[in-house]
Amino acid sequence: MRILKEKNKFIATVLAFGMIPISGLATDIYLPSMPSMATEFNLPESSIQLTLSIFLISYGLTQFFAGSVVDSFGRYRISLISMFLFIVSFLITVSTKNIMVIYAMRVMQGALAGLAVVSKRAFFVDVYEGEQRKHYLSIMTIVWSVGPIIAPFIGGYLQKHFGWQSNFYVLAGYSLLLLILELMFSGETLKSRNPFHINFLLKEYDRMFRTKDFFYGMLMCGLSYAMVIFFNLCGAFIIEHKMGYSEVIAGYASLILGFAWMVGGFIGKALMNKAFLPKIRYANFIQLALIILMFAASYLTSNLYTLVAFAFAIHVTAGFIFNNYFAYCLGRFPNSAGLAGGLTGGVAFIITSAISYGIVAIIKPEIQLQVAEGYFILGILGLFILSMIKIRKAHI
């Protein structure tokens, strides 16, 4: 297997950053198309929303073993195979009218995204050390947020001019470009291979789950990202079907909220050297205050602008919490970076998919007040976990 050459280190790092947003691109690019897909397939909203939740569940579950795979068999080979199969799965998606085939492809795409992203997370731990590693891991979470920012914006225009299939053609083209560049410039970065057997995997996962700061971090990552996915599941339907705006406007709304997530990431990076738990608690308190304000405002006025404005502010706090905790968890076990990254992503995205889809299924948000209710549930869960951390520390 070709080893990464020192002269290609910078280009390979750029390519790694290019692959990190693939999961966000695959989830968000077709958000403005979801209402049209429901109409074209003659299916209820929940059936189309399920395509997103299925992807996230598959993405999360895959990461449980993806870390062991990339720690045992290397990062490079897994990346190449994932990109190739991505292309195949996206092309199958656009060629079918059967929702069950689309479900199957979304399962496959979630699994491939898990393998590809875990391999690139581990890349940064392999190649960089100390403060430089910390810097790149923090930047990585910000770059990852680029997917949710640009994807629905592009998807809105693609839906308007070419239909929902064009979203997956674009994803196939992007995957092909990454595959070609990886073959030209990248290489293997794994220095020592861990054994790939179930006993080793269970032993490492047991050690990580018993590390309480790491465990609580995974939970907080899942709850923070659930705020974004909660809005993604219901936002386009509210904006297009209830408010009467076009898919392009829905794409702009998602673009703005994507920037909110990135702003939270930048604030997190700027405050990287501040005391960890106090800044997380302050962010959670601000988040709950904004949600309560959203409740109050909903009784006075409710329109596209207030909906997006409140969601923007709340998503900034969610992005801040996620950025801090995700970077912390990825660097917590540097000798098992793939496993730590896989477990963090796995637990976080399973929590995200289950809670966000569950809240949408129960509340069935159609107005701003109901969106605030969903946010409130997630904010209170975050407060509960942070309270548990404080109680535990008080008894140590």
From TrEMBL:
Keyword annotations of the record: Membrane, Transmembrane, Transmembrane helix, Transport
Entry annotated with the keyword Nucleotide-binding: no
Domain of life the protein comes from: Bacteria
GO cellular component annotations of the record: plasma membrane
SUPFAM superfamilies reported in the protein's UniProt record: MFS general substrate transporter (SSF103473)
Residue spans crossing the bilayer: 48-66, 78-95, 101-124, 136-155, 167-185, 214-239, 251-271, 283-301, 307-327, 339-363, 375-391
One BP annotation, GO: xenobiotic detoxification by transmembrane export across the plasma membrane
Record-annotated Major facilitator superfamily (MFS) profile domain positions: 12-396
Membrane topology according to the record: Multi-pass membrane protein
Subcellular location: Membrane
Pfam families documented for this protein: MFS_1
Molecular function terms, GO-annotated: sodium:proton antiporter activity
PANTHER family in alphabetical order: MAJOR FACILITATOR SUPERFAMILY, POLYAMINE TRANSPORTER 2-RELATED
Protein's name according to its UniProt entry: Putative MFS family arabinose efflux permease
Native source organism of the sequence: Chryseobacterium defluvii
